[in-house]
Amino acid sequence: MMFNFYKFVMKKFTLLMFAMFSMAFSANAQYNVDGHKFWDNWSIGLEGGITTNAHDWNSPKGFIVGINATKAVTPVVSFEFGITAGINNNYNWEMAWSQNVIDNISAIASTKINLMNWFCGYKGTPRFFEIQARGGFGYMREFYPNFPGNPTKSGNDLNRAVAKFGFDFDFNLGKAKAWTISLRPAIVMKLARETSPAFMGCVYQNRCDSYFHNSIYQFTAGVTYHFKTSNGTHNFAVVKPQVVTETVEKVVEKPVEKIVEKVVEKKVAATGNNIYVVEFEQNKSNLSNTAKSTLDQIPSNSTVIIDAYASPEGAKAYNQKLSQKRADAVKGYLENKGVKVADAKAHGAESKSSQRIVYVRIK
Questions:
Q1: Domains of the chain and CATH, by start
Q2: 118 and 24 in contact (C-beta within 8 Å)?
Q3: In sequence order, which residues have a C-beta less than 8 Å from that of residue 227 and are 6 or more positions away?
Q4: How far apart are CA 64 and CA 182, in angstroms?
Q5: Burial, 25: exposed, middle or buried (Cβ in 10 Å; 0-12, 13-18, 19+)?
Q6: What is this structure's pTM?
């Protein structure tokens, strides 16, 4: 009965951690951060504290010390690998204890979710106080445990798979937030079930059946150092959106990024005062059929002055160059018709209302 309960709990915990992990990665997609190379955002920590049985939690039963290494892959998600040693953990597991000073060693790999960054966003530096949820699985080895009432079981090492779940209450210190002091309560549950006939036949059979599916609480405090990252800080840095100041010319030079507009040819007639208006498409300097039709209205024995303009979307230097190309295109077309061009000026974009137009004025 107890085994089924723990199996149910482990299944729910596993599904919960998987869901948190998936949602955290999805939520973190919005972050634009620097410092996510493989060797960035590593930290190392030391911890120590007390342990107690889940069935007798009000009386500490031993001590625990450990070391851990953590890799943060995003401001929300990180992975931790920790090794801990239990000291004088009498009765912490199955009513058994060891005569050694170090009773057990465990190695556990965990996933950590920074709840503050997940729900409140990452602002470019860790908060002074943060809460992280963590959970993982690993391996524990107990050295020569003694089992009261079962001498056939005593004196042998005991190996088991374990699961560990808990929270980190972090206090990030210093201007650079390079150091973290943490309170780390957790529960450790064993995943294996003892089926030894000798053990199950012990005089403590009822208690063995209960305690063999037992858990322990760990209450530890730790200190962590965050190594420096490639961005010059000890944590992720937010990358601010950059304002593009480069010319549009660099964009349109790439075929896949060219601006495609629907060609709308407008027939522009002479204005009646010896000024002809020629319109161009955006980022274009070639003459459309409508533009040629307008220029064909200019008498071949005329002398003209050309003033070319551009719209204000691009950079100033680019607009100047584009308007010059338009002026040259009109000049070349007219000269081929026998029209004399006295002057061809490129004005770029002179104002926010400037248009993609070339004025041809007959002198």
A1: 2-238 (2.40.160.20), 256-362 (3.30.1330.60)
A2: yes
A3: 41, 42, 43, 44, 234
A4: 15
A5: middle
A6: 0.56
